[in-house]
Amino acid sequence: MKKMIFVMGILIVLSLCLVGCGKTKEKESTSQPQYAFYKKDKEKRYQDYQKQNPDLSWKDVLLRVNIGLDQPYYTNTQESKHLYSNYVLVNKYTYLKEDYIPKNLVVIDSAYSKGGISLSEEAQKSFEEMASQAKEDGYTIRAISAYRSYDYQVQLYRRYVEQDGVEEADTYSARPGFSEHQTGLCVDIDDGVFDFNQFESSKSFDWMMENAYLYGFILRYPKGKEAITGYQYEAWHYRYVGKKIAQYIKEHDLVYDEYYMEFLDK
């Protein structure tokens, strides 16, 4: 009898162990994958955003909350990091101070621009190289706007607000301090024939889609990514990030905000 009771006790212990192990495995299988860009202090925001967006992957939830997209635009803003580098991020949550001026601004050759506009030196050289190759291939890439000062953006944004109101203006124009043009790394282009807002209809646009990344440029506000960038699709607006990053963004169908939050938000 004692032996039987002992055996039954062992069986019960084994059964409890198996049940416990099963629960552990189940818990592990339903846990979220770990990412280096997970921020413990944003845990509740991640959870709330996932409930509101159940179709998003956990990775996309983390990246979008890190960008700030779980909160209204222009709230809890902070100064941009990586200033005076190709990595600087400027969007509706990160800004440049009023006195920020890029170093080494160089005027773009008038053969590839409407004249008198500048980019940071590395971006300027790459843009001219790109425009020159496009010309060899039979296409025209012309810069029509590049670096803009804070004060210039004040005037531009004010005019758009007077014209369309704040809500509409915010979909296509950055508020002062929140414009990428102030970085000296952005350029608006046309083909010398079509107006810039019709650039998508030109053959030069197709050339840019195939070749811009080879020179370190990305389409900054692409179609279908408006919910992430916060801006309307702009076929004419390109940002210099360097060849390596541009290639990665193209291959993985990202926007710069996503890449930045995954790899550069240190």
Keywords, separated by commas or semicolons:
266 residues, alpha+beta, Muramoyl-pentapeptide Carboxypeptidase, domain 2, 4-stranded antiparallel β-sheet, two-stranded parallel sheet, 10 helices, 8 strands, 43% helix, disordered N terminus
In words, what does this structure look like?
With 266 residues, the chain is an alpha+beta fold. The protein has a single domain (72-263), classed as Muramoyl-pentapeptide Carboxypeptidase, domain 2. Helix content is 43%, strand content 12%. The protein has ten helices and eight strands. The strands form three sheets. It has a four-stranded antiparallel beta sheet. It has a two-stranded parallel sheet with strand order 1-2. It has a two-stranded antiparallel sheet with strand order 3-4. Helix 2 (43-52) packs across helix 3 (58-67) and helix 3 packs across helix 10. The model is unreliable at 1-30 (pLDDT under 50).
Q: Secondary structure elements and their pairing?
A:
Elements (H helix, E strand, L loop, with lengths): L1 H29 L12 H10 L5 H10 L10 E2 L14 E2 L9 E3 L10 E3 H16 L5 E4 L4 H15 L1 H4 L16 E5 L12 H9 L5 E5 L4 H4 L4 E7 L2 H10 L3 H8 L3
Parallel strand pairs: 1-2
Antiparallel strand pairs: 3-4, 5-6, 6-8, 7-8
